[in-house]
Backbone:
């Protein structure tokens, strides 16, 4: 191989490393590449298994290849120790190790004299290299950590490795180590990421559960209020349907959360009445000034109950303002016209209609037509005239036939009366 | 020379261990499956067997049982990638002398073979 070819090969290898996330595949590619381009009787790579603190063969090629998955080298293996240990003698280069170098060292008494253990260690390394039929070992370091070792056999043409070739392997080994480290980081990150995602999921599940519980409590509170308030005229579901139909008649956008917000507000608008005593709620006579203040307070109380829920912000606002009047004479703030959310204006109409037609404990409900006439009379004052018109269209579509028959509004309640016998 | 039998369905492993132990003065026979292994055990009476478990046909545990039935004194070291507790217990129950998992340390394998053979003497 010429110097130019090596540079090209290096560039290609480097490009490959960037692409490959899996180091095993990368190392196999490198081994295949060396085997093909340099023609050796054996090319193998040892890779560091950090959790187990040992090295194992990840790939091997050539006639004298080493069976991958059979052998591991523990951290105390002489070959591993050779590259991990700092040598006292400056003449020992650790960028790579050739079999011939070992033989030279073993014959050089000046070097051997510098370190008492050196001869023994060299003998042991020599034995390891013989065992794996390696003529050259090239360590791959990344930030001082030995992450892999290239074990190279003999060239098939019998020649020695040139300095150029050795420095090529050295660069390759270090680049490969960097790639190994990167992929380890990647794996660790993926792992952490997954753990984090699981935690986030767990927390969000808990939050969801908490929210669901809160919803259930609020909705059962609302149901409780409606029962206490003697809203015997119909189910909350009926209120919901009329409210939604009115919105549809008006051509409002009910996409996404908008419909949910309207429905929740229709169900929950009177939830604040949970704090109003029966003596006031069910009082037949006119309320005193103080009692009226308590009664009026239910809008604010309702909003307060809903406030702790993140995604009930809009609902809480609607509940707070469902007794505002179109002409600005309502409560609690005296907002007027468009200042009042459209959902609150719808609830005002639906609620008033039901109050009029219901059979309360203290009075019988008025007729459907009377109620409609009353709504029309108050349009532009208490109510948004457009909402009133839309509501009338909706209510006629849905309920009128039933009213004609019963004159009083109990059509949608299941009958609990005993069947009369003949 | 001590006779050893290496049983593994991967020919490269057989060849590598054969060279390794031949260089350490063993006479090494190899078998790529359980049937050949049993035949060689009966014919050649090796002192020690290195036995893989996962093999096509007769698996290592079956071979172990039959070796220990016919030749209880033959040492058998399981050499396998399987490291489940159940498999290890099963092998030891049927008389395996040791259980070494791949990838293995050659130094440890060599020492263990030596130890097991010394026990026989």
Residues:
């Amino acid at each position: 191989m010429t110097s130019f070819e090596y540079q090209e090969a290096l560039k290609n290898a480097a490009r490959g490393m960037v692409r490959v996330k899996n180091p095993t595949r990368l190392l196999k590619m490198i081994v295949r590449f060396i085997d093909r381009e340099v023609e050796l009787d054996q090319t193998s790579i040892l890779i560091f298994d950090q959790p187990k603190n040992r090295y194992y063969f990840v790939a091997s090629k050539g006639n004298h290849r080493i069976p991958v998955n059979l052998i591991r080298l523990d951290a105390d293996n002489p070959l591993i120790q050779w590259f991990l240990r700092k040598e006292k003698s400056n003449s020992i280069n650790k960028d790579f190790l050739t079999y011939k170098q070992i033989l030279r060292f073993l014959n050089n008494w000046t070097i051997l004299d510098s370190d008492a253990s050196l001869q023994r260690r060299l003998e042991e390394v020599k034995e390891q290299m013989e065992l794996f039929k390696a003529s050259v070992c090239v360590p791959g370091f990344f930030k001082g950590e030995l992450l892999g070792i290239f074990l190279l056999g003999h060239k098939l043409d019998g020649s020695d490795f040139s300095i150029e070739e050795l420095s090529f392997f050295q660069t390759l080994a270090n680049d490969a180590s960097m790639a190994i480290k990167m992929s380890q980081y990647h794996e660790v990150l993926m792992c952490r990421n997954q753990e984090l995602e699981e935690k986030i999921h767990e927390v969000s599940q808990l939050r969801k559960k908490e929210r669901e519980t809160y919803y259930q409590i609020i909705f059962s509170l609302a149901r409780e209020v409606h029962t206490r308030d003697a809203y015997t005229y119909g189910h909350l579901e009926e209120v919901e349907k009329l409210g939604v139909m009115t919105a549809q008649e008006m051509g409002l956008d009910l996409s996404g959360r908008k419909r949910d917000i309207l429905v929740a507000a229709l169900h929950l608008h009177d939830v604040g009445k949970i704090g109003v005593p029966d003596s006031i709620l069910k009082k037949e006579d006119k309320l005193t000034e103080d009692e009226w203040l308590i009664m009026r307070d239910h809008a604010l109380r309702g909003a307060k109950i809903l406030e702790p829920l993140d995604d009930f912000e809009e609902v809480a606002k609607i509940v707070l303002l469902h007794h505002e009047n179109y002409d600005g004479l309502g409560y609690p703030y005296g907002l007027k016209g468009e200042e009042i959310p459209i959902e609150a204006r719808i609830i005002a109409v639906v609620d008033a209609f039901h109050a009029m037609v219901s059979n309360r404990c203290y009075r019988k409900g008025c007729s459907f037509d009377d109620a409609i006439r009353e709504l029309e009379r108050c349009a532009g004052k208490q109510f948004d005239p457009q909402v009133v018109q839309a509501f009338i269209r909706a209510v006629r579509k849905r309920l009128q036939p039933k009213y004609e028959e019963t004159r009083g509004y109990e059509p949608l309640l299941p009958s609990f009366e005993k069947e009369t016998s003949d | 020379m001590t006779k050893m039998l290496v049983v593994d369905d991967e020919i490269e492993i057989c060849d590598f261990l054969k060279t390794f132990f031949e260089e350490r003065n063993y006479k090494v026979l190899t078998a790529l499956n359980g049937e050949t292994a049993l035949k060689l055990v009966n014919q050649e009476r090796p002192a020690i067997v290195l036995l893989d478990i996962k093999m096509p046909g007769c698996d290592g545990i079956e071979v172990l049982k039959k070796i220990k039935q016919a030749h209880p004194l033959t040492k058998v070291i399981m050499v396998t990638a399987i490291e489940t507790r159940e498999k290890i217990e099963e092998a030891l129950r049927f008389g395996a002398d040791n259980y070494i998992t791949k990838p293995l340390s050659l130094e440890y394998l060599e020492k263990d073979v030596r130890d097991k053979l010394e026990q026989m003497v």
